[in-house]
Every structure is written in structure tokens, then in C-alpha cells.
Amino acid sequence: MNAPGATTPSQTVGPYLHIGLPWPDGPFALAEGTEGGFWIRGTLYDGAQAPITDGLIETWQADPEGRFDHPDDARGARAWPAFRGFGRSATDERGGFGVYTLKPGGVPGTGGAMQAPHIDVSVFARGMLNRTVTRIYFPDEAEANAADPVLSAVPEPERATLIARPAEDGYRFDIRLQGEDETVFFDI
Amino acid sequence: MSTDPDTGAVPLAAGYLRDTGAHPPMDYPGYRSTALRHPKRPLHLLPHLLTEVTGPLLGEGRIGETDNDLTRQHEGEPQGQRIIVHGQVRDGDGSPIPRTLIEIWQANAGGRYRHTGDNWPCPLDPNFTGVGRTLTDEQGRYRFTTIRPGAYPWKNHDNAWRPAHIHFSLFGRAFTQRLVTQMYFPGDPLFFQDPMWNSIPDEKARERLLARFDYAATEPEWALAYEWDIVLRGRESTVFESEVDDE
């Protein structure tokens, strides 16, 4: 028996995660065609800037009012019943992923400060012994982004890697595990 | 908890304990594929705010009748030795984690995955997909019936073989508790050369990936049994708003 407090260690998802983890509705944090819905698409790249085809992206975010469908959000139930807040997308043969979602609202931080709209992201893949975590921020939130405590703690030159770019059907957010434009990753 | 009626401030739930030391490093030269797949810049500390202390509560309507019995998903019986894998999911404080989604995937008895990329020349089993899911009960308990997976070769180093294992994916109750891991079998002779097992720095932590043979849970003339408990991160002690304000 394991003693309480002793966390079970992480291991890689391995090369065959695609048989177990993807769901048909995984990429849809809400039903396609819902008003306000858009795609966040991107490509996952390795250190040689090659697309990673055996990866998986998961997203977790607040609803457009900045609320979470969870007992630890003290403000009660969400006002967007059709919204799951969670997206899961395996990468395809070109390293591409996509999540159909709504733009989150601002989320309370500490001391009455607000965080800019953001999405927490987990990245899993063969060759990764633990997930990496990053955040997606939005390009049309310059003021909120400037005041965001997490984003402002990141050195200016790297900050851009956390901000999605506008795209035809929503936004684009590429994730680079290494290289000159290495995405900022977080220790959680 | 409720919001402050005067300020509208949202009280923050306590964050989760950082479990540095339990997990393998992202860069582990013994596992070759980590070389191009780990961040090279230092990670930035992410405070545990609302997005991190909440997480998707999944599972309702997602579990089919045979999802926790991988031996009943096809017309015939799969090849191999039937096993029961059961245990309890708790957090670092010892509290059971109820109603959390567990997903598993694994190779068949011969060590082959039902995946187009797996070309190890061992037969596929038409009666085994190797994918299961379940929800923990109110006491955090789970149970799967499956087939003991085989070991298989891979190309990481000369004569490399993966010890038999089952992949586990768990959500917990918060984004910070998300865990993907692997369960191993006691007495496996392949650990010494396996970089995934050896990547875990602490030997005691490594052993937490080992299931325990559970004779009491075997089913006569039907199945062997293994017990494997899983521990997700525990909570920090309660944080008061005033302390948070002082950060």
C-alpha cells in the first residue's frame, strides 16, 4: 500500500495513445455551430521543428462569464449549460490539433485582480515523460493581457508565444517544444 | 464558499501541493525520444488560481456497459490470461477521489497494440481492442477486467524491451491533478533496461507504479487479480485571502 502523500509518478503516453484517449466529441468543448463558437487550431512541433503526429492536446477554460463548472468555483453553476470547458484533440498526421470552443471571460486572480481571458493547455506525446502545460491568451485583449499577473511575469520577448493569432475560423496557436520560438511552459 | 457581498471577491480554494521529485525529468537521455521533446527553457511558476484548482468533471454518459471489461468487448474471448485490476484513487491527503474518469489502454497478451503504427510481428487478437474506461465510485475505487499484456521490443536501444504495462489516464478534480502513468507487474525481469521505469529518480517512487498480486481478489477458475492504488496531488493547507493579498 502506498502512504498518503506519495504521488504516483507520471509516465509517457507512449506512441499508441491514439487507441485509448481520443473521443469522437473530444475537440468540441461545445456543439459545433453554437453562436460565438470558434476553432483554435495549431500544430505541435518538436525540437527539429518537425510536426509531432503522436501527441494530444487538452484544454480547460472558463465560460464567457469567467466561471467554471466546478464546486471549487464559489460563484456557483455556470450560465452556459451546453459548454463543457474541456477540449481534447489528438494531433493528426501533420501534427495538427483543433478545439472548438467559446472565448473565456476574465477570471479572478488574487487580491481582487483579474486575469485576462486564457485557456490552460496540457500537451502529451511519446517522448514526454510528463505533460507540459502552457496557456493560450487572446490577441484582441491587449489591455487585459498587460494587466494579467501570469503573462506579465513572463519576459517580454517570450510573451508572444502565449498569444494566439487571428485565423479565418477563429485563432491559431502553434506549440513549439524547443527552438528559437519555444513556447513558454509552466511549472504547475 | 460564497462570494464576498461587498467586494464581489471570489475566495480561492487552496492550491495543490507541488510534487517535485515524484516525477521523471522531461529530459532523460536514456529515453531517446525525450531529446527533441522537452522544453529547454526554464519553466515559469504558475500560481494555482481558479483555472488550476478546477478541472473537467467528466464521465457521466461516457461509460458504456463493457467499458471496464476488456474481455467482453467482442464476440469471442480474447487470448491470454484474464486479470482483474482494481484499486483506490486518493489524493495526497489520503482522501478518496470519487467519480473520476479513468481511461486505460494496453497491448494484447502477445505485446501488440491494435494500432496501425505497431508492426511488431506478433499476431493481433480479433477479440481484444485493449481500451477501457470507468469512473471511480464514492470511495474512489475502480475495477477493470482485462488480459495480462505482453512485453514487446522497441528501438530505443540495443535489444530494448518494454516491461508489461497498462497505460492509465486520470483527471482527478483539478487541472493540477491530471495524471497519465503506467501500471507495471511485480517481478518483471525487464525493469533494469527500461528507461521509462528508470527515469523516475526515486526508487520508492518507482515502486509506486508496481501493482500488488492480490490473491484474495482472484476469481476461482476465472481470473488472477492485482491491486494498484493511485495517488494524485494533495491540497495545500487552506489559503486565506489576506495571505494571498500579501503575495
From TrEMBL, chain A:
Pfam families: Dioxygenase_C (PF00775). GO terms for molecular function: ferric iron binding; protocatechuate 3,4-dioxygenase activity. Keywords: Dioxygenase, Oxidoreductase. InterPro entries: Intradiol_dOase_C, Intradiol_dOase_core, Intradiol_RC_Dioxygenase, Protocat_dOase_a. It is an enzyme of class 1 (oxidoreductase). Residues 34-179 form the Intradiol ring-cleavage dioxygenases domain. Its EC number is 1.13.11.3. PANTHER family: DIOXYGENASE, PUTATIVE (AFU_ORTHOLOGUE AFUA_2G02910)-RELATED, PROTOCATECHUATE 3,4-DIOXYGENASE ALPHA CHAIN. Belongs to the intradiol ring-cleavage dioxygenase family. This is Protocatechuate 3,4-dioxygenase alpha chain. It comes from Streptomonospora litoralis. The gene is pcaG.
From TrEMBL, chain B:
GO terms for molecular function: ferric iron binding; protocatechuate 3,4-dioxygenase activity. Residues 62-77 have a biased composition (Basic and acidic residues). Residues 1-24, 58-79 are annotated as: Disordered. Keywords: Dioxygenase, Oxidoreductase. This is Protocatechuate 3,4-dioxygenase beta chain. The gene is pcaH. It comes from the Bacteria. The keyword Oxidoreductase applies. The keyword Oxidoreductase applies. It is an enzyme of class 1 (oxidoreductase). Residues 85-113 form the Intradiol ring-cleavage dioxygenases domain. InterPro entries: Intradiol_dOase_C (IPR000627), Intradiol_dOase_core (IPR015889), Intradiol_RC_Dioxygenase (IPR050770), PCDO_beta_N (IPR024756), Protocat_dOase_b (IPR012785). It comes from Streptomonospora litoralis. PROSITE patterns: INTRADIOL_DIOXYGENAS. Its EC number is 1.13.11.3. Belongs to the intradiol ring-cleavage dioxygenase family. GO terms for biological process: 3,4-dihydroxybenzoate catabolic process.
